Amino acid sequence: MCGRITQYRYPVEYMEALGQMTIGGLSPEPLGRYNVPPQSRVQLLHQDDDGLRMEPVKWGYAPFWAQGKRPPAINARVETAATSKFFRDVWKSGRAIVPADGWYEWKKDEANPKIKQPYLIKLKTDEPCFFAAIGQFQRGGMAEPRDGDGFVIITASSGAGMLDIHDRRPLVLSPDCAAHWLDPELDPNEAEDIAIEHGLAVDEFDWYPVPAAVGNVRNEGARLIERISDPVL
User: Fold this and answer.
1) Is the per-residue pLDDT at 163 higher than 60?
2) Catalytic residues
3) Gap between the Cα atoms of 198 and 192, Å rounded
């Protein structure tokens, strides 16, 4: 799964990596978030009536008929998201991209699952990651979020090499595929093909152990992404 991410660069750096510079209103300050949890507001890229926008949207989504019945979902499996009753409407009309720098997973001790070691996972190139996402968010230049606004990150199987950390990971797209994913004219069936066939492979990523302090969402700062030399696992 994906339950904690990093989003700390300048907004313009994500846009440059995506090859999209026709967007206004970007903050001149770095985002500076090294420990981003679900249910918080996360910078999200999506198309609106006036073009591409980057704005904060809650990480967590449930369709109107499911709200209050269970906690909002934070992830959607790529294998079923396009067809499931829970996500199929936003698959068609609510594609988005989470620009990020990486994500955390916790490796568990098989003998004692209470012993966990957090790992940071990011691209070997240290370029931004573009997580495929779907959800409900502002349209028509609306400034204020509506009830029910939110998004989920699409996840895929980790595959060989990363399975010892976790069996699921965010679906990370190349800049070209991410830009295509954001196209409002993209057919939902073609979007499904992008999601299933064109996510970046495991060998494009690096992962290493980081301080246990990342386990507390109140902790922040660049120290959380530093490699440690004495992991418990």
Assistant:
1) no
2) 2, 105
3) 10
